[in-house]
Each structure stands twice: as structure tokens, then as C-alpha cells.
Amino acid sequence: MSTQVDHAALVVSPTEFFELKETARIRSSIGLKLSDHSYLPKADDPRADWVASVAVPAFKTLAQMGVSAPRFCTIGTGAGLDVLAAVEILGARTAGFTDLHEDVVAHARENIQSNLVDQGVELIDGAGDLLAPVAGALSDVDVVYENLPNIPMAESSDLDDGQTSSTFIAQRREEIPDFAEKNLITLHYLALRQARPVLRAGGRVLSSIGGRIPLSAVLALSGAAGYNGSILTYTWKVQSEPHDVVGGYARWEREGLGPFHFYPVSVLRDTFKGLSVAEAGARALEIEESLSRHEISAVDALALVEQGEKVGHTVAILDSVRIPDTAA
């Protein structure tokens, strides 16, 4: 794969990275500028990259179902690749995007604008918490996509220190269901709650959730937030930033949360071999059961990582369709 890295610059080919035959609305070579806070796309290892291995297959699945998203929004965009993918695959013409840091949002806007062939796309962005920065500017959204961090940040950590996309500030004012806190899916629940007012009737939220927890807990999110939920796609990825992420899960596992599940990469590769992400989504509970005998706890997975071994995890796209508000 053709990749050029120069500290804050990266170039990827969407035909390779997104596995598209050709592109019509975005450039055939995507140049990205990144800040120290930006999540770094895994251009040399798409299986470890969230956009390439999780978001894009989910967008393609929706497109194959005949679902488009003229009005699209993403929470936590990072470099802006998810927006570019939505423009190309889902036909987005209005795209909202947020991230926590102003410099990340500014770079994402530049990345999106400079890589659009179709300059008729309206961009609405803001920096801050979840959907709050764009909530007043967006309405009747077709699809909200989110890939949010799961691990509460240690008290000694500094949110402004480097790239912290795998952690979040734990203190929240909102009431959180116990199951969401126990399974470290607090932000996914809050995103679903915040998305309801900006979605059109029948609009949906795609929640990208690392399957280190039972799928029953993932599915429970939809009902708790007022949606009809199902697993749209099911896949796997190599754990990226393994020391930080697996270490974070291990820390909370020792505190009594979880347990959290990881798997040998070879087992995941063999289990999902020959299955499309949509087929795996339809069989997600069955696949989860077949993998149960290969589960590795976060504490044991951390020991493997410290020995230089790779571990992986499953990933579910939870498709939450907004239930219409009932008449008073």
C-alpha cells in the first residue's frame, strides 16, 4: 500500500484503504494533516484501523440495503476519514462532525475539504462533548456514526497531553444505567441519548463497539436509550495501541468491572474467514458463543501483549433505529 508519513502528514489511497473499485466524490489520493491530538489512521495495517475495518464495511452494508445518508453526522471524527467515506459510500451532502479538541476538528475540516471532488457538500463542525457542538445546527439527520472511547481516564492523566482517543473523562452529570457503567459503554449510551433530537423519524445511530463485552450488553443499549436495536455488522480487528488499551481494561477488570474479552488473532481470522460482515452480523450471537472457549481476560491479554504477542477483539456495529415519539 502506498503510504507517506511525515510526522503530521499522511497519504492513503481510498481504493485500497476503503476497498473501493473507484471513487467519484472524493479524490483518488487522500492527503491528511494531523495534530498531536489526532487519532492516527493505521494506513499500513487496515485490519487495525477503525474506519477501514469497521466503519467502511458498515457503510457499504447500509448502501447494499438501499439506505443512503444525505444528512450524516459523526462523533469523534479524528482525521475526517469517516466523513469522506460517508460522502463516497452513503451519498452524504450535509456532514456534521465533532471531536474533543479544536485542533483536531480544524485539521479534519481541512482534510475533508481538500479531498472532496464534490464541493457541494455542506460541512458543519464543532469541538467539544459528543454531539453538543453541532446539536443546534443539525436536524433531520439520516445516520449518526460514532466510535467512542470506552475506558475512563485515570485521575492522573491529562486530557491535553497527546492523543487520548481510547479514554474519556469519567465524571458525568447524566444518569447512567448500571449495565453501561459495568461494561464501560457509558459514552455509547450518552451518544444515543443525544442523537435522538437530531435524527429524522426512522433515522439511525451506528455505534461502533469493540466486542470485549457480551453482545447482550451491546444490544441493551438501544432499548435503554429509546431505540430498536440490532447488530448490523460483526467483524474483528487487531488491538491497536495494545499496551494502553488492554492495560486500561486490565486496570478496570482488577477493580471488579467486566470481565473483558480478547482473543488470539489466529482464532479470530479463522472464525470470520469467508463471512461477509453482514452475514457475521446476522449470526453474531452464534459466533460469540463459538468464540467463548477462546476468551482471554484483559489481565491475561495484557501479559501476552507485554511478551510481544498480538491480541484481537470482535467489533459490533449496533444499528439503533429511532422509535417515533408517542403522542401525549
Walkthrough of the structure:
The protein has 12 helices and 14 strands. With 328 residues, it is an alpha/beta fold. It has one domain (35-322): Vaccinia Virus protein VP39 (Rossmann fold). The strands form 3 sheets. Strands 4, 5, 6, 7, 10, 11, 12, 13 and 14 form a 9-stranded mixed sheet that branches. The protein has a 3-stranded antiparallel sheet with strand order 1-2-3. The N and C termini lie far apart (56 Å).
Distance between the termini: 56 Å
The CATH superfamily title: Vaccinia Virus protein VP39
- The appropriate CATH architecture is 3-Layer(aba) Sandwich
Q: How many DSSP helices?
A: 12
Oligomer: single chain
CATH class: Alpha Beta
User: Which regions are unreliable across 5 or more consecutive residues at pLDDT < 50?
Assistant: 1-7, 154-169
Give a brief description.
The protein is of the alpha/beta class and 328 residues long. The chain has a single domain, classed as Vaccinia Virus protein VP39 (Rossmann fold).
Summary keywords:
328 residues, 34% helix, disordered N terminus, 9-stranded mixed beta sheet, 3-stranded antiparallel beta sheet, Rossmann fold, alpha/beta, single chain, 14 strands
Write the topology of this structure.
Blueprint: E1 4-5, E2 9-12, H1 14-17, E3 30-33, H2 50-64, E4 71-75, H3 81-90, E5 94-99, H4 102-114, E6 122-127, E7 141-146, E8 151-152, E9 167-168, H5 178-182, H6 186-195, E10 199-210, H7 215-225, E11 227-238, H8 242-254, E12 261-264, H9 265-272, H10 277-282, H11 284-291, E13 296-297, H12 298-306, E14 311-322
Parallel strand pairs: 4-5, 4-7, 5-6, 7-10, 8-9
Antiparallel strand pairs: 1-2, 2-3, 10-14, 11-14, 12-13, 12-14
